[in-house]
Amino acid sequence: MNIKARIDELIKTINKWNYEYYTLDKPSVSNQEWDSMMRELKTLETKYPEYLRKDSPTRKVGDVILEKFKKVTHKIPLFSLEDVFSKEEVSGFVDKVNKEVKNSSYVCELKIDGLSISLSYEKGLLVKGATRGDGVIGEDITENVRTIKTIPLKLSKPIDIEVRGEIYMSKKSLEEVNEVRAKEGLELLKNARNAAAGSVRNLDTKVTAERKLNCFIYHLPDPEDYGLQTHYEALNFMQNLGFNVNKTGKLASSLEEIINYIDYYHNHRESLPYDIDGVVIKVNKIAAQKRLGYTAKYPKWAVAYKFPATEVLTKLEDIIFTVGRTGQITPNAVLFPVLIQGSTIRRATLHNEDYIIDRDIKLGDIVSIIKAGDVIPAVLGPIKERRTGNEKPFKMIDVCPICHSKLIKKPDQVDWFCSNESCPARNINALIHFASREAMNIDGLGERIIEDFYNMGFIKNVVDIYHLDHKKEELMELEGFGIKSINNLLLSIENSKHNSLEKLLFGLGIEGVGAKTAKTLAKKYKSLDNLANASIEDLNNIYDIGNILATNIYNYFHNEKSLKLIEKLRKLNINFDYINNNVMENDNLKDKKIVITGTLSFIKREELKEIIENSGGFVTESVTKNTDILILGENPGSKLEKARKLNVEIWSEAELKTKLGY
Asked: Which residues are known catalytic residues?
């Protein structure tokens, strides 16, 4: 690789992206792509300092200044913070601080996704508001700043002071603005950060006022001038003056407390009324900050931990097809490897043929990938403006990629299916599903082992799993199988016979019956035999079970092949009854459709969800006219307002405790 040419290319590209992001407020790439390229540039410049250029974006805090605004020179430069992307890097930051300052304390704050600003007051009156700009020279946005309600025009004390903060647009405000723009036929604003930046830098102050922007103040450049010794004191001082200071800030005395703060807000960020993209960690004592000092670009006493990306861009290199346990054919994206939520992603689902065609996805496209929690990554769609003309159209296959049988598709379905019920891929995936944790939970019978056992002829169907004890000597001849591992596997198989009915129902692989539906059916009918005798009408009357699913369940229990399997399982003494596991039911929750919003202080969301479902209630994600109860935690989202409009019953945490008998 030509190092100088690569550095030149990186500088040119990043400067172009910075111009689009900071000046035009129209970014053409994701944060993940920008971060990746910037880190590559930093690495190369460190390794090859002879190629370091004066115009490198690594030497700049921001970018060029718009000519339409008056320029403002900051008395004290506005430094940006160094980004870190892993908890190991956070640990490294703490270690560096501890080498210089023993027993240091820290302040953890949310990294608001907005526009950095500086506010200046004289004798307690607002005289100037300015953007960060390049850190030394910003833009005078005083008149627009005056329209933001959370920025005080007059302080509680007549003092001279400069403070720094972040102007942002709430999720609710973005939603309201886009509702108006949609009615007027205007292009919708893509995200809150760009909407805030564009609004505050608009020449028409009426536009800024209409956008209902907000502001959090988080930094006092010269705290010692006011007799303050810590950053935490400075936050309280600014709040007492009338500034809007984010109340989520927290003191931390150890790495463990910092990580706990990061984990909490990573898990609860969606419940916040505004967007955040990370956590800022600052050394608390001002004297320690001065001792640590600055690099040419960053303070050494603070870092910004950025949450792992949930949506990233990468190249779609190929499309391959897999066969599920029902014979369903799923197209999957083969991607240029990309890091998302701490994992390197090389595959993502494309769902089905219609999904690809509707989104006009082509081979060679730059595509947007999303991953939420443990959900399989999915392709959202192509970035069409990044196309080069070399992309190739998608074409659906017409035969099974495993057994080469003809694919079939029913008129009312979107998915293609392998027509061969004996297709090896179908059988293997059915076995994997049956043994999985949410189904029969047979520890030691993972995907690779099932595939090996299938190919060796040990198991061809689920009944064979329960006859593996007859093949103990043969199993011991296999590489990696000793007496202990075989005994553990056989014990796990034996224990699975005593599972509650819902795990067997889910494991049977009835079309459309997931883990949640299996539990609903088990609780309703108590035994497999009762369920087998249920009519379509009976099944259709159960909440969340429509006519198609009811028909699927009914047909399964009236299919000769299924009945033979059930009788074989019965002879193996596999439990066919629902086991309540002594979970207390609550009549206050029975048959209620319930939505949970915000953060609950005394009970975990999953624990509450389990109580509701075990009591015969239903947890849903969206507030509708059919919602019976909204459970209200701290920092609720837009669901609260919608519930009020629809006159939905709202329970506070205190009321919830009473209803649960806490």
From this structure: 111
